[in-house]
Amino acid sequence: MTTPYDDMWEKLNLDLAAHEGLLQVLGKFYGDIYLSQSGRLKGMEYLDFVLSEVHGLRIRELQEAKARGQKVIGTFCVFVPEELTLAADAIQVGLCAGAEIGKEAAEKILPRNTCALIKSFVGFKLARLCPYIESCDLIVGETTCDGKKKAYEIFADYAPVYVMEIPQMKQACDSNLWKAEIARFKDEIERVTGHTITAAKLKEAIKLVNARRTVLQRLNRLRAAAPAPISGRDALLINQISFYDDPVRFTAKIGELCDELEESVKAGQGIAPQDAPRLLLSGCPMAVPNWKLPFVVESSGAVIVGEESCIGTRNIRDLVDESGDTLEAMLEAIADRYLRIDCACFTPNPERLKHIVDLARDLKADGVIHYGLSFCQPYAMEAFKVEKALQDAGIPLLNIETDYSMEDVEQLKTRVEAFVEMLH
Ligand code: BJ8
Predict the structure, then answer these.
(1) In whole angstroms, what is the distance from residue 243 CA to residue 103 CA?
(2) Please, where in the chain does CATH 3.40.50.11890 lie?
(3) Among 38, 121, 176, 313, which has the highest number of CB atoms less than 10 A from its own CB?
(4) Ligand 1 atom at minimal distance to the Cα of residue 345
(5) What does the alpha-carbon distance between residue 225 and residue 264 come to, in Å, rounded to a whole number?
(6) How far apart (Å, rounded) are the C-alpha atoms in residues 151 and 75?
(7) Start-end of CATH 3.40.50.11900 domains in the chain
(8) In angstroms, rounded to a whole number, what is the distance separating the alpha carbons of residues 234 and 240?
(9) Share of the chain above pLDDT 70, in %
(10) How many C-beta atoms lie closer than 10 Å to residue 297's C-beta?
């Protein structure tokens, strides 16, 4: 089948047949998981449109920006400060890594017992499937978990990669290391873009990224209402889209959607029955199109009211302090904000336990599902502490480990249904 974008795919050197296969899977998934939902608000049309054009208009926009001289920076972790990228007049995209396609290629150069997210990004590159990866002038990796850290060494054979060192603890010396890393990243971005980051540009960028976080915070607050005004699937999609859509457009559109949601809440309307068990998902990020667990949960009679995840609250909870006027003060504020991220790669990581309990209470969640990708040690190890913290708070937990394959859907359904039944 030919599409208006075929020339673009050829220029990006995608494997056309494999890419077409990916789009078909994505389209079918989206139809089954998203378009089948009833009672969605008008604002959701924006999500449907963006997703239908995820491999289309947005890539064209990136190509047009590149033709004007802008650079595209790809990332796989929320530690990479987008404020600096934007201040250098570049575009940052969070690369998705949520599909199994490309796994076979990845397993030729990675151990099989590697988490699905890592296999996915390596596989996408090797199989020439992702127009976002192919649009990137630089891919920024980071030393978070061991799997990612080592995978970037391999990835660097296929794409331009720069790696940020993320501390593993949060002591004064770690904070100094992190500040130095932010400064090193600034230099690298200036080198790649050819633009000097000025205080005025950085201030503007800080405001822009904070505005996107603020609208997502507003969305999260609205989800505390009962009945829930939006499905967990749609909220996850919004968070996923936030990583690659234009930040100004995204913030405006989600603001409009929140206005609509506010009206629904005022009218006492929701997308699930008032007594549907409310669940918080917690753990590993769910990248596009990893919608498996939310779909299983919401077709089991429960509604997801929050995501304690990097594609969720962990990415938007903290704002950068906007009061600084000098470059130094702003870089310091950026370093402070990012070091507050409570990824399980840190030791110890007590903040995350508190955040999960607080979030479950704020959102009036009846239970928590801890979601770990198979072979992800940081989150699997931390799940024991999460369980203990929730037990102490009297909140039930279901611990799920899975990957991107569909083989365990029935088994997951049985476990989730039993958990939901217990909460009724
Ligand atoms: S700040 S959560 S985005 S590292 S699932 S690759 S941890 S083995 S994704 Fe993450 Fe940054 Fe942390 Fe967030 Fe490794 Fe685990 Fe795989 Fe993971």
Answers:
(1) 23
(2) 6-181
(3) 121
(4) 12
(5) 10
(6) 13
(7) 204-319+343-423
(8) 10
(9) 100
(10) 28
CB of 276 closer than 6 A to ligand 1? no
- What's the predicted TM-score (pTM) here? 0.97
215 CB-near residues (< 8 Å, 6+ apart): 251, 254, 255, 258
Please state, in angstroms and as integers, the Cα–Cα distance from residue 359 to each residue in 178, 223, 371, 373, following that order: 27, 11, 16, 22
pLDDT digits (tens, 9 = 90+) for 285-307: 999 999 999 999 999 999 999 99
Cα(249)–Cα(367) distance, integer angstroms: 34
Contact assessment for residue 369 and residue 398, using Cβ atoms and an 8 Å cutoff: yes
302, 420 contact by CB (below 8 A)? yes
What is the topology classification, in CATH, of domain 204-319+343-423?
Answer: Rossmann fold (3.40.50)
Residues in the chain: 424
Residue minimizing CA distance to atom 8 of ligand 1: 376
Q: Cβ distance 144 to 165 under 8 Å? A: no
Query: SS3 for 171?
Result: coil
Tell me the pLDDT of the chain averaged across its residues: 96
Tokens found for residue 422: 């217990």
Please tell me the distance between residue 338's alpha carbon and the centre of ligand 1 in angstroms: 15
Residue range 84-123, pLDDT digits in tens: 999 999 999 999 889 888 899 999 999 999 999 999 999 9
Instruction: Give SS3 for 358.
Output: helix
- What's the whole-number mean pLDDT along residues 30-45? 89
Q: Is residue 1 pLDDT above 70, yes or no?
A: no
What dotted CATH number matches 6-181? 3.40.50.11890
The stretch 260-282 carries a mean pLDDT of 97
Task: Band the pLDDT of 200: cuts 50, 70, 90.
Answer: very high
Atom of ligand 1 nearest to the CA of 145: 14
Beta carbon of 80 within 6 Å of any ligand 1 atom: no
The candidate with the shortest Cα–Cα distance to 287, out of 19, 59, 57, 76, is: 76
Whether ligand 1 lies within 6 angstroms of the CB of 118 is answered as yes
Helix axes of 350-362 and 377-393: crossing angle, nearest 10 degrees = 50
